[in-house]
Amino acid sequence: MINLYIFNETSRAAVYGIGTYIRELTTALQGYNISICVIHLHSDKPENELNESDTIQHWYIPAPVYWNASLDLDRQNELYYRNVAYLLQLQIKDTENLVFHLNYIQCRPLSENLRRFFSCKIILTIHYLDWGFRLSGNTVRFRQILVVQETDQADEFNKSIIESYRKEKELFEMVDHIICLSRNTQQILQNDYWIKPDKTTVVYNGLTGGNSTLDKPALRKKYHIPDIPIILFAGRLDDIKGLTCALQAFKTVLNTQQCHIMIAGNGSFDKYMKECEDIWMHVTWTGLISKAKLYDLYSIADIGIMPSFHEQCSYVAIEMMMHGVPIIASTSTGLKEMVEDGIAGLHVPVEEYSDRAEIDSSQLAEKILYLLQYPKERKRMGVNARKHYEAAYGVEIFRKNMLHLYESLFISTGLP
Fold first, then answer.
1. Strand order in 121-126's β-sheet?
2. Residues 6+ apart with CB under 8 A from 221
3. How far apart are CA 60 and CA 57, in angstroms?
4. In which residue ranges of the chain is pLDDT below 50?
5. What is the pLDDT of residues 78-114, one digit of tens each?
6. What sign for the dihedral angle of Cα 393, 32, 49, 62?
7. Nearest to 41 by CA among 2, 71, 68, 5
């Protein structure tokens, strides 16, 4: 029996798909020879609480009270994580085959204290890298910053990137094993963080299958959508997702082809509304919607677009493939390997420079027009997208890979 403790951070759980990852992971592992407990740190619940649901335990540990103004935030977080480890030492009774599964790169102090108090294995899933968001996934600029880290040439912003990198590297070296959600991240860990190849494993996200209960014509009728091609963007309204580029490309497409774009997600509406001047009637903003309604939109959509600058293993891309939607995706980080160019969708390149990363909206427009003008190709890619979901991102293969990983942690020690 493996005793598995999975760490979540309540205040950040919905960010970067980590909440979905933990739900899918715990669901996939139920019924197997693993005792599972999810520990929710920085909880908004008033006190420590033990809640058992089915065979999975959930422990909620409240956020710290910042009582000492003389301590900076990093130091107070260190004290919080130390106290979490003390609390777990009192709570955890069965320490045989003990695994702690971390999901946040800010957890270095937690990992350090878990190592002090327990004989255990610590693994980390990398859902994001700090510099990836702050530099829009620009590896060219990231590596230039690393070159000057030992000199006095770095400005304050670059110094903050270097400091974040050093903390991440310390965590990566401290844990027993690292789960990468893309081969791209695995290569970055080896080439830029000097992590040995045998310490990392690529395990793609898995997602439980689900479809709308209605067919496409019925769904169009339900949502009063006319019989014109629908382009779908789903995700946070954020620069990192490339929404400005998507809207600029859509304007170009409208000059040639009648179509409609649906934007499902929450964020800075005012900023992106400005990109829609004079084309308002061709754009639908849904805001944040339920999964059931989002799945309806996937079933309606003819094309999915993802001009993101940074992704690991996107659940939006998986959901689109699950619904047979061909995707036009950027070549950023993990997206390039998720969407097979010319097979399950099309690529639009990200150009990296020393001071910025860019996607040419005219190239994105060309790819959208191609799929609109060649419906047989669109259908072929949609069928292939569904096949790719089944082969790479179905919950069964995710379960198999994760069970194998957990069990392999103890092979060298002779444990079952």
1. 49-53, 56-62, 34-43, 2-9, 98-102, 121-126, 177-180, 200-202
2. none
3. 10
4. 12-14, 48, 413-416
5. 889 999 999 999 999 999 999 999 999 989 999 999 9
6. negative
7. 5
User: Comparing C-alpha atoms, which of 16, 4, 209, 19 is closest to residue 123?
Assistant: 4
What does the alpha-carbon distance between residue 205 and residue 337 come to, in Å, rounded to a whole number? 13
Please report where in the chains the tokens 């690393």 appear, as a residue: 146
Q: Of 232, 233, 212, 231, which is closest to residue 221 (Cα–Cα)?
A: 212
**The two three-digit tokens of residue 21, written as one number:** 């990852």
Instruction: Please enumerate in sequence order all residues whose Cβ is within 8 A of that of 206, keeping only pairs 6 or more positions apart, or say none.
Output: 24, 28, 393, 394, 395, 396, 397, 398, 399
Check: CB of residue 120 under 8 Å from CB of residue 99.
Answer: yes
Nearest Cα to Cα of residue 203 among 393, 414, 363: 393
Tell me the β-bridge partners of 177. 123
Measured CA to CA in angstroms, residue 251 lies from 159, 232, 278, 282 at distances of 39, 14, 9, 9
